[in-house]
## 1
Amino acid sequence: MRPILIAGNWKMNLSRQQAIGLVEELLLQVDHFEAEVAICPPYVYLDTISQKIGHTSLALGGQDVYFENAGAFTGEISCEMLADLGCQYVILGHSERRHILGETNAIVNKKAFAALEKGLKPIVCVGETLKQREENQTTDIVLEQLYGSLAGITEKQAEQIVIAYEPVWAIGTGKVASPEQAEEVHATIRQTLATKFGKVTAQNIQILYGGSVKPENSKELIEQENIDGALVGGASLKAETFLGILDRLQ
Ligand code: PEP
């Protein structure tokens, strides 16, 4: 059985006080749920939030990272820095980074290797745009991103990776993929992982769904055979909605 993972991506949101308030509210209840729970705040709040979290079950993640270890890379953050602050996860290849900041599969791939080397679990995001879905390119696009992002990754390394299927048309739009639409892509991803890493490893890899997940739709999505949790944007910014997602899974 794969554990359910619910990860919150706060993106570039919340003041410092709001971030502290949110984590305090989450900590009051997070132990009541069976699922693994992670939050990915903006870099500048990681240290403060890490101290709040301490040794509780709430996991911490970065929203991105750079692949070099150190040096003249103005504005960038290394995997070692994230690990040092207590991060266990790092989101890689989010569609906003791919589409707004021009991140390629090759870059995501380098970041995945760098993260694994420092003991961080990459949450590798893949997903098609609305145009690509309408042109029946969903499978091609998702598999191209998957193969490119995971190029050269070994079976052993793959055990540490989480995949997030996030259809771009469903992110922050209120439009959610139907459980059947999502499950179809998740099943294809798992089959592909089985071809690449073997069936046993593929069965152990968590594949999250992301795209307008909220309390009202989380259960029916996560009940699908190949959906092992959610990467949550908007609904992770309020304790009520983030905890509501977890509550519906009980
Ligand atoms: C995301 O940012 O990964 C995401 C899925 O956002 P939202 O839940 O707001 O659609």
## 2
Amino acid sequence: MSQRSCLSVILAAGEGTRMKSAMPKVLHAIAGLPMVAHVVKAAEAAGATGLALVIGHGADEMRRAAHKFAPKAETFVQEKRLGTAHAVLAAREAISKGYDDILVMFGDTPLIDAQALAAARQKLAEGVAVVVIGFRPPSPIGYGRLIEKGGKLVAIREEKDCSEDEKKIGFCNAGMMAVAGEHALRLLDKVGNKNAKGEFYLTDIVEIAGAEGLDVVAMEAGFESALGINNRAELAEAEAIWQTRRRREAMLAGVTLIAPETVYFSHDTEIGADTIVEPNVWFGPGVKISTGATIHAFSHLTGATIAENCEIGPFARLRPGADLRKKAKVGNFCEVKQATVEEGAKVNHLTYVGDARVGAGANIGAGTITCNYDGYSKFFTDIGEGAFVGSNSSLVAPVTIGKGGYIASGSVITESVPDDALAFGRARQRTIPGKGKELRERLASAAAARKKAAE
Ligand code: UD1
Ligand code: CA
């Protein structure tokens, strides 16, 4: 099968009014990735070599987005929404390039299963002309019913065109179809619009192919793969299903999730074996975790790279460009952005490290802040290997602290500190013997005098 070329035509011209959104429906995200991009991924996983995206509503925004999630996709605008067959034909130019297999998919069905698509393509390779992916929803209302006879699919009847008997059929059209490329355009061009909705139905190609004596079959897929998203409640449902699948996959790959239902992955999270994730952890896009890390509760990670055996949180925030090397520690209420924390370095409490390098084995005291931004530009802080930064210090970038440098607590460091130097960046303490007692007595007698005057 792998030698067969395959074009995936993804229909996404719909308006999606029920999302009540200024953004096209299919750009709403699941696990941080637009739902239509999930469809693209499934198509690619099923071996699609070409991608045609049929767009309409919000075409410019769709093109811009597609450029990111499917740079190789060709986009085709369907000017008027005259039905699913009409929509597929908007991509006529791509279809006529002569692909072996054509996969038709809907942009609003993000949980679609690549294995079902691959199995449908296998049927095409065996000589079947049209393969329809079917499913059994809890209620078939609103779906096209699959009418079978002797193991062959003879027709798909839309709800509005069904007889009472046909309405009782529970096996429904999920919306995905695989069509042999050599027949696709001919079959589509024969579709008319004499039906209850006056639309050109893609589903009519089943009867048309049958009439030509071609083989047409239905294959059953799981309910989730056909879950179409029309509103934000369904979007959340799809997100929940996606997360459940991903958590299970992570656990089976050797990751401990203590309370899996509270951990949220992104579509691209990479997480190695023997990582322990405590409850309530959020992974935004771009996180890569090697093995053996512990992510304590309530941590929020985006765009971070984490090497072996690191310890993060609780309540840590790792932002894009956070690069933790082996055994680094980023503890509670710390934020790290665009910064390398080298092997064994510790950033343990209430600290902000941004645009910086923390050298191997360095220890950053509680409340340390890299002052990386002057309101206009960002500057770099370089902290050498084995340095010690005392608590509550401000490191005003650009600034360098040499290897083994030692910063006194509460310092404001504006000048670079050489290797092994000790730097104080604060006023010297003054201690006056007996002065505390004297002050207290003065304050007490003034208060007593005020009280007497008020009587
Ligand atoms: C369609 C199927 C139905 C199936 C159901 C599964 C047809 C005629 N019916 O019905 O058998 O059970 O999906 O969910 O195919 N679109 C366009 N341009 C158009 C029309 C539709 O791009 O002119 C896109 C929509 O944006 C959507 C998809 O095609 O992504 C499906 O269209 P929709 O109107 O939702 O079809 P259904 O009536 O749900
Ligand atoms: Ca629909």
